[in-house]
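User: quick one - fold this with histidyl-adenosine monophosphate bound?
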Amino acid sequence: MTTLKAVRGTRDLLPAETGLWNRIEATARQVFARYNFGEIRTPVFEDTTLFARGVGEETDIVSKEMYTWEDRARAQSEKTQSLTLRPENTAGVVRAYIEHKLGETGQLQKLYYIGPQFRRERPQRGRYRQFSQIGAEVIGPVSAGSESPLRDAEVLEMLATLLDELGISGWVLKLNSVGSATDRPKYIETLRAALLPVVGQMCPDCQRRAETNPLRVLDCKVAEDQPFIDALPKIADSLDQASRDHFAQVCAALDAAGVPYERDHRLVRGLDYYTRTTFEFTHGGLGAQNALLGGGRYDGLSELIGGPKAPGIGFAMGEDRLVLTLQALESTKITLLDTKIDAYIAPLGEAQNPAALQLARELRRQGLSIELGDGSFRLKKSFEAADKVARAIILLGEDEAQSGILTVKQFSSGMQTKVARADLAAHLTASRI
Ligand code: HAM
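Assistant: Sure. C-alpha cells for the protein plus histidyl-adenosine monophosphate:
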C-alpha cells in the first residue's frame, strides 16, 4: 500500500516547532490588546462571490489560486452554492462587519484574527498552499475617523512595535500610495499606453500582464526588464491632491513617531481593493518570498460587497514567514533551549504507580508541568528519560510514599535533596529561575 503524506504545499507542525508558533501568537495578542483590538473569528470557507467581488476577478488569487467547489444541496430548501476556502481574511471580516451591522455602533471597529488561509500557489520556501496569517483591520464610518491618516500611521507604528517585541530585527517598511478609486484606473491606462511601445522587448510574463493586469508588470523581477520598468510613469504622478495630502500626513505622523520607512513607487499590491496607503514589511533573511506582511487601505471594499460606506485599513502577517525569520536568528535558538518541564516522577516499582498518579495530580493542579514515568522502568531508564525532558526527577518508593519525604534531584546542579511533600511545589518552582 502506498503511504499517505500531507498534501503538496501543506505540512504538519510538530511540538518542537509549535512552541515558537504559540509564542508568536501570544505576543501578537498582547500587543493587539494594548492597542484596543478585539479578536474576530470568521469561517474558513465563504461564498465564492465574496472573493470575486472583494479581492477582484482579475487578480492572480481569484483567477487561478482559489480552492473552489460546488457544494451540493442536501435538502430541497438548500441551493447548490459555489464555496471557496478563504485565500485571505479581509473580505470575510468586512462581510461580518456588514452582516452584524457593526457600523451602526458609530465606533471604529478594531478587529484582529489568527488563522489558516489557502492559495493554490507554486510551493517553495516561505510559500505554502495552507499558510497562517495574523492580521488586523480598522474599519468604521467616516464620522468615527476611519479615513484619517492617523489610523494608517498608528497601524504601522503598532506593526513596528510588534516586530520589535517578537525579536525580529532588520525589517524594512516599504510604503506607497495607490490613490483613490478613480486614480488607480487612470494610472492603469497610463501604464498600458507607456508599455505599448516597449513591452515587445520584455519577458513573456510582462507581455501577458501588459494585456490583462498592467499593474503586475511592476512586480517583475527579471533583471533585463528593470530599465524598462524604472522608466515607466509612477503612480505618484497620477494621484489627486486629496490622496497626496493624505499620504503626506501618514508620513508626517510616522516621522514624528520615529518609525523608519522607504517610499517604494512599485508597491501596488496584488489585491484590487486597495486605495491610498499600501505597505509591506520585508526581511532580507527570507529569500525570494521576502514579504513578512502586507496591507493597506481599502476605502471602497464595503460598498463592493454590498455594504455601507466603511473605509478601513489593515494588514496580514505571514506567520510561517515570521517563524522562518525567527528560526534563523541566533537569539531565538538561545531562548528556545529552555523548554524543559518542571519534574519527572519516577515510581520505584509498579506498586507505586497509583501513588505516582496521585502526586502528579497534586503538583499539576498547583500549576507545575510534570511527566509521569512508570514503575516497570529500571532506575537507569527513568533517569535517562527524565534528563531528556525535565529539570528534576522525583523518586517515589514505598518509603517516600509512607514518610511523605521525597527525594528530588536537580539535573543542572546534580544536587539531590529530601523535600517534604507539602513543600514540593514551592521547591520546584524556586528552581525555575
Ligand atoms: P497578502 O499580501 O496577499 O495580503 O498576504 C499577506 C501576507 O501573507 C504576505 O505578506 C505573506 O507574508 C503571507 N502570505 C501570502 N501568501 C502566502 C503563502 N502562499 N504562503 C505563506 N505566506 C503567505 C493579504 O492577504 C491582505 N488580506 C492583507 C490585508 C489586510 N490588507 C488589508 N488588510
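One thing worth noting: Residues 88-90, 119, 121, 126-128, 131, 133, 135, 137, 270-271, 291-296, 298, 314-316, 318, 320-321 surround histidyl-adenosine monophosphate (CB under 6 Å).
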